[in-house]
Amino acid sequence: MRLVTVALATAFTLAACSSPSPVKYPAGNTKNLPFETPPQGPFQPNANLFVCNMSVSNRPNSAADGQVIEYNPIIVAFGTVLAAAPANDVCLSSGFGPRNGRMHKGIDLFARPAGTVYSGAPGTILEVTQQTGFGNQVLIDHGGGVYTRYAHLESFAPALAAGQRVGFGEPLGRMGKSGNATGIHLHYEVLRGDYNTPKKSWGLTAHNPLDFPAYAGLDTGS
Known about the structure:
Elements: H1 2-16, E1 50-51, E2 74-77, E3 80-83, E4 91-94, E5 97-99, E6 102-104, E7 107-110, E8 116-118, E9 123-131, E10 135-141, E11 146-156, E12 165-166, E13 171-175, E14 186-192, E15 205-207
Parallel strand pairs: 1-4
Antiparallel strand pairs: 2-3, 4-7, 5-6, 7-14, 8-13, 9-10, 9-12, 10-11, 11-13, 11-14, 14-15
């Protein structure tokens, strides 16, 4: 049984990584964002996103080569400017929406080797916890009732803790397969609602990061 599991995991990795490589925006493309960003920092949003070379049941609208159509790397979610995919050089291994009879409330991003996960926007960390389903997960409050969740992390960044302020593109940890995950990836959610209820983050409403409009002030270098 262990040999079968290893074989399946290896096949997934090889298939996913055969997707076309994403293209980075020119250096300094984030200079017009409405908040301070680290110059030439380690997180540089990719200009495009490809679906991993594998079967994706909730695949978004994409071209024959797997490139997600009308992908916006920097989005505006309910007035908050966010990164749509907060990790470098990833492909999409699962989209938002129904999957295996259940609602998948985020997008899954895969990279090989496993990459660092970054904060999608400035905010205050509310949760740095271990969950049965999501494993090691981080929840950030961006204000205005907008939140992001980063789940299945292998590990957290050093000294990361609830109550800490983070900026755009700050390391949160490394993508992994903690919790209920069959392979290494990042599960990323954009959430909205009132956190101050008995359900906390579980009472928030999830939205598809790929559905939001582009931030108009981004310098694409074109």
